[in-house]
Amino acid sequence: MSRTLVVLGGSGDLTGRLLLPSLAQLTALGGPGGDVAVLAVSRQDWDDDAYRGWARDRLAAHAPEVDDGARERLLARLGHVRADVTSPAQLGVALGRAAGTPVVYLALPNTAFLPTLEALAVIGLPAGAQVVVEKPFGRDRADARALNEVLHRLVPERSVFRIDHFLALQTALDVLGLRFANRMVEPVWHAGHVERVDIVFDEALALEGRAGYYDTAGALRDMLQNHLLQLLALVAMEPPHALDDTTLPARKADVLRAVRPPADVARDTLRGRYTAGTVHGRRLPGYAEEAGVDPSRATETYAEFTVTVDDPRWAGVPFRLRTGKALGTDRREIAVHFRPAPGLPFAGRPPEPDVLRLRFDPDGIALELNLNGAGDPYDLERHVLEAPLPPRPLPAYGILLRELLAGDSTLSISDAEAEESWRIVEPVLAAWAAGEVPLLEYPAGSAGPTRPGTADR
Ligand code: BG6
């Protein structure tokens, strides 16, 4: 069945920075997605050639490693139509140019999702069509419901692909292999042996010119509501009996339903915003001084909360999720902290409990263990078993495009997951908006905000 990838927002940053480079890499590799026709739709007054010129520049900037042959083959498959994507008439004309079955990708600001889906619902889509929606999926649960309602009028749920590129990160997928393909892992993967789980995504990157989007989103909506809750779902879900588009999203939705939002927002959440500072030798202005930022919005660039998973496996185990921008160290990991070993026969101070770390970019796994040290045979020493993982052959967007173009939505966020994730964060958003939790400041390049009156982070 021939398909055309119809990219709404075809001249946007996401398309130029992530989608076109991933399509170029798929073209170079061959296989699904490697020869799909691409029709870009935007408000630019461009013909196909003008669009190809723009795309050529984007590929030179963001996919320099792709060979000339693959790049030219992709450019030859690109077309462009000018349209206001919220106008059913104009969108209808644009879709009329798509050969075969359309895969309609909303690479748009999230405020444009609903009017665009409404426009698509007016014109309708042919059988077999797919719809791909970027993140964040709305601004709250009511928005997510409204989006789901129109999507369900348009195409069946399994033809919807809600993007969360973290699901295609190698380390996220490694959670599945680690948990379900090793006899020694899953039996200890529960509250009886696990004391706490930290899911940390500290970034040295700052705003990087994204005020237009980020200043109305903030760290909680940008990262915790979607990416980090998805990681929590992979870590905490019950074993799926299959890795397919009904089972995996269903297992994740189940565990998200069991997540209790932070019980006490003042104690269980932390928000912050960076002030001027230096990150890796780069001098940064404070977030409030960045171009395009409206400081009165009090947008957070650091967000943290602790939740529990109210099910028999995880009762009482805190899951701390945190992310921040302009931090001194790129620390991106899922850290599973085990309970102390009982009944130690060793004298002296009890050793640190075991920690399993799944690291992102560079990807790797580290297991911190206690072993007998050299010299005194009964003296314990800390050792780390490190396994760096090979670099990924395809970026996360490349994997998602390959999967969705093959008609497989296993790595999509389901309708239920999207709504549950908003349910979890909404009380935090409301408490922060009401000023119940102070917006703390932290210098760019530091380790993030410190809880008032403590040295805690
Ligand atoms: C994006 C967020 O979805 O994920 C960014 O909008 C964030 O703010 C990024 O920096 C992190 O993912 P990655 O894969 O670029 O490290």
UniProtKB/TrEMBL annotation:
Keywords noted in UniProt: Carbohydrate metabolism, Glucose metabolism, NADP, Oxidoreductase
Residues the entry annotates as binding NADP(+): 43, 84-85, 135
Substrates-to-products reaction catalysed: D-glucose 6-phosphate + NADP(+) = 6-phospho-D-glucono-1,5-lactone + NADPH + H(+)
Pathway annotation: Carbohydrate degradation; pentose phosphate pathway; D-ribulose 5-phosphate from D-glucose 6-phosphate (oxidative stage): step 1/3
GO MF, one example: glucose-6-phosphate dehydrogenase activity
Pfam families, alphabetized: G6PD_C, G6PD_N
Enzyme Commission number: 1.1.1.49
Any one of the GO CC terms: cytosol
Binding-site residues, substrate: 165, 203, 222, 325
Residue numbers annotated as active site: 227
Boundaries of every Glucose-6-phosphate dehydrogenase NAD-binding domain copy: 6-170
Lineage: superkingdom: Bacteria
The keyword RNA-binding is annotated on this UniProt entry: no
Record-annotated Glucose-6-phosphate dehydrogenase C-terminal domain positions: 178-450
Example of a GO biological process term: pentose-phosphate shunt, oxidative branch
HAMAP family, A to Z: G6PD (MF_00966)
Family to which this protein belongs: Belongs to the glucose-6-phosphate dehydrogenase family.
General function of this protein: Catalyzes the oxidation of glucose 6-phosphate to 6-phosphogluconolactone.
Name of protein: Glucose-6-phosphate 1-dehydrogenase
Organism: Geodermatophilus pulveris
Gene: zwf
